[in-house]
Amino acid sequence: MENIIEQLALELGLKKNQVKNAVELIDNGNTIPFIARYRKEVTGNLDDEKLRNLDDRLKYLRNLENRKEEIIRLIDEQGKLTKDLELKINNSTILTELEDIYRPFKPKKRTRATQAKEKGLEPLAKIILKQNIKDENIEKIASEYINIEKGVLNFKDAIDGACDIIAEDISDNSEYRKMIRKISYVTGKLFSLAANEDEKSTYDMYYNFSENINKMPSHRTLAINRGEKEGFLKVKLEVNEEEIFEYLEKQIIKKESIFTDILKETIKEAYKRLIKPSIEREIRSEKFEEASEQAIKVFGVNVKNLLMAAPLKDMVIMGFDPAYRTGCKIAIIDVTGKLLDYTTIYPTMPQNDITGATKTLLELIEKHNVDMIAIGNGTASRESEKFVADVIKKAKRKVYYTIVSEAGASVYSASKLATKEYPDINVSIRGAISIARRLQDPMAELVKIDPKSIGVGQYQHDVNQKRLDESLTGVVEDAVNKVGVDLNTATPSLLSYVSGVNLKLSENIVKYREENGKFTSRKELLKVPKLGKAAFVQCAGFLKVPESNNILDNTMVHPESYDITEKLLESLGYNVKEITKEDLEDLKVKLENIDVEKIAEKLDVGLPTIIDIISELKKPGRDPRDEMPKPILKSDVLKIEDLEVGMVLTGTVRNVIDFGAFVDIGIKNDGLVHISNLSDKYVRNPMEEVSVGDIVKVKVIGIDLEKGKVSLSMKDVN
Question: For 115-136, what is the mean pLDDT?
Fold first, then answer.
């Protein structure tokens, strides 16, 4: 374990003590959000991202250690384990390297080499490899190994069999494979060709394409892989074979002999038949894994930014789920998310009932004092947008609209959860409710669906699904726990992502709340069935109770720090049980001027903890999402035909990918800001410049009316 700690510290650029403490906390069942928030002194202030990276590498290295032990055992059972071999195994740092070492000892199916050994040709293979004979006749030497009964009919059969043994030995050599892998990666070029040149597809750009494998970006790797999988592309990897042959000959052919030419041919045969296919698979698999990890990372960042989008509070919202034939579904929710009304209107084709739909919409706006209309961005979205924009001009009150991503809304609508929430409401109406709630509280609504269905990624269906699920679950957990959850309003879906709370426990919390009324303190959590002290420690700090008499219950201050916090307040002249809203303003001023280091020393508490406590006391019950950009509120519609090159617009970033960002500027399709147009300076990673949900100014630099595509730039935009 000490070796793993040292390696983690080296890889992640951390102190050994940081790593050791973090590993101990993880092994003791503490969650990443809990460790990141409440064990800062122990880990040296490691945040959730660093802790998850550490946890991932920890799992990999432990798996590596387990595999080492297994391989040592398996080789030892064969009686072939030496001290040098054991040292070589233990010094391996990656699984590929480890498996290469084990390769010669791995039980094989009957290969050409094993058959040749059965025929008694191994001694001849050794003679050839020794290269000691310069003048004798090859035919004469090989003829000694002819065995009609075993199928060695002539000297050529003997030579061929011996070469099969040598070829397999070359292929099984871990050092050779390591170097060949390196040469292949450095010199390798990936070629993609059309499987059928006459067939049009989204992969047209890859019909005659090549690129160095080591420079190929993640999105291109995944695109080519998908094109190959779908049968549109033929893909091959070409490497500098001459460099490989030169390397192998230098390693194997030590002197001139009568076997030199045979060895040269055997080397080529070993590479082309045995090494090349497996190395190509390994490299392409490695590139795919790298690309997958990058895609998962991008998806995760986008999901987190979407979850952290600012909620639209204190507004009555109309959810508008667009459609054609089946009509547009309408649902209205109040400021708490409660469903007030719902209906279906038909302003789009084929009915085109503009008059009837207008009348219904205006009546609903007036009846429920609607402030905002959230329009889903799916089928018939832009037609619906034009209709809504025209209607709100006729309304007696000021009403705005905005476009909301409806990705996953249909998944939620048909789910067991939706059925449980709205058993008497039609599936199609549930989608409109979800759209409205996504605007009101994105996080609370989006946690109800599978993160993969949120729609802010790329190639998410191509990557390792287990790894994607693990990563996205972690992303949602981090976001939910960063914001905190209102214990008295949260749904089981939201509660299940709180540190230390699983789905069953979240259901128990809600059931307790329904049976006993609102929670009046955090301590009351201990009365919830199956919620023991360990779970309480993990979750309590993230669950807020606005109704509590103790102001600290509505902050992210952990109950274990209540004593310290009370002492801090007392030193400033306050009693935690008697503090008022008026006191909070005065308290905020006093906290601004406090000597943090001095008070930390006085209270015998770590600096990170006291800083977090003070931050919470300044804004009890605060929602970090309030600091995020608010959605763009619209009152009119824009068409692609309205655009002109050079026009400057304000838009919302909908998706960030490796090669740029898609921005909603109010037309049917999002415009693309290519990575080269994100900034005046060089941009290595688009996420360094923009995030999902950002409100940005963009300039129109290209319009393709036929394809409905718009190119945008963020350069030179004032």
Answer: 93
Could you tell me which CATH number the domain at 2-105 has? 1.10.10.650
User: Which residue from 186, 181, 156, 158 is spatially nearest to 271, judged by alpha carbons?
Assistant: 181
CA 169, CA 165: separation in Å to the nearest integer?
Answer: 6
Q: Which tokens in the block code for residue 187?
A: 């010199």
Q: What is the reported pLDDT for 582?
A: 77
Which amino acid is it at 533? K
**Do residues 127 and 205 make contact, with C-beta atoms less than 8 angstroms apart?**
no
Give backbone dihedrals phi and psi of 692, rounded to 5 degrees, phi first: -55, 130
The whole-angstrom separation of Cα 310 and Cα 306 is 9
Segment 297-324 mean pLDDT: 94
Q: pLDDT > 90: what percent of the chain?
A: 85
Distance CA 524, CA 22 (A): 30
> Where do you find CATH 1.10.150.310 in the chain?
503-627
- Alpha-carbon span 523 to 511, nearest angstrom: 17
Query: Which part of the chain has CATH 2.40.50.140?
Result: 640-713
Kindly state the tokens that stand for 585: 């303003």
Measure CA 596 to chain center.
Answer: 37
Q: Is 416 exposed, middle or buried (0-12, 13-18, 19+ CB in 10 A)?
A: exposed
Q: Residues 615-625: what's their mean pLDDT?
A: 91
Alpha helices in 336-380 (DSSP H): 354-368
Is the CB of residue 710 less than 8 Å from the CB of residue 703?
A: yes
CATH class as words, domain 640-713: mainly beta
Q: Is residue 194's pLDDT more than 80?
A: yes
Question: CATH says 317-440 is which class?
Answer: alpha beta
What confidence score (pLDDT) does residue 621 get? 86
Class for the domain spanning 503-627:
mainly alpha
Q: Which CATH number fits domain 112-295: 3.30.2020.10, 3.40.50.1980, 1.10.3500.10, 3.40.390.10?
A: 1.10.3500.10
**The two three-digit tokens of residue 374, written as one number:** 């959230």
Question: Is pLDDT at 379 greater than 80 in this prediction?
Answer: yes
Pair type for strands 671-674 and 317-321:
unpaired
Contacts with 78 (C-beta within 8 Å, 6 or more apart), sequence order? 105
The predicted structure's pLDDT at residue 458: 79
